[in-house]
Amino acid sequence: MHTPFSGGVKISSILIVLNLKTYLEGTGENSVRIAQACKDVADDSGIDIAVAPQFCDIYRVASQVDIPVYSQHLDSVGAGSFTGHAFSRCIKDAGAVGTLINHSERRLTLAEIDASVQAAKKSGLATIVCTNNVPTSAAAAALSPDYVAVEPPELIGSGIPVSKADPAVVTGSVEAILKVNPAVKVLCGAGISKGEDLAAALELGSVGVLLASGIVKAASPKAALEDLVSKI
Ligand SMILES: O=C[C@H](O)COP(=O)(O)O
Prior knowledge:
CATH topology of the domain at 5-125 and 190-228: TIM Barrel
CATH superfamily of the domain at 5-125 and 190-228: Aldolase class I
Order of helices and strands: EEEHEHEHEHEHEHHEHEHH
Strand content: 15-25%
Distance between the termini: 12 Å
Bound molecules: glyceraldehyde-3-phosphate
Helix content: 25-40%
Structural class: alpha/beta
Largest sheet: 8 strands, parallel
Strand order of the largest sheet: 4-3-10-9-8-7-6-5
């Protein structure tokens, strides 16, 4: 199941990235608990599952659970006179192996996305650039991240899977990215929660999914994760 490393970071044939957003209030132990559920399901299924907690929980999760941890955002600043930024070297030192960039809930300019991809690469972090449609997917691919994750914003948190509601944005992104930079892998997200959603996402040409609410807000995140991988 596992394929070789890219820039020091393992790139799997199928990847599930669980974004915890700010759903878990109060205690980092909740992030650890969900990360452990991801780890258990990854071990049982053989599918790589990564988790993207809040910045302040990266160290706690990475040091307590043997799972790939992604940052939810990263700024392109280097060491210096910058305040309130997510510095790539500190994110890496905290234990992250990669980062989301330009999530729909944390948009950047194209120039900032480019600079963030470069900063992440320089620090040895895998990069997932989020996009909202086919043209932005093509633009993101030109910046050579490891992954582009296409997510129609209107479906995020809706419970309506992109693989059913807007399959063309996934197939269109796959096709456009292949033309621009075939080395870039495609994830899709928004409304994904069930095994049939992941299976459909793979059939559309993506190599995995970026998801959040369907797992994090489930009564049993572990049971929801087990269902997610059940059709593979
Ligand atoms: O980062 C995750 C995406 O925004 C999808 O969120 P969702 O699974 O809650 O729709």
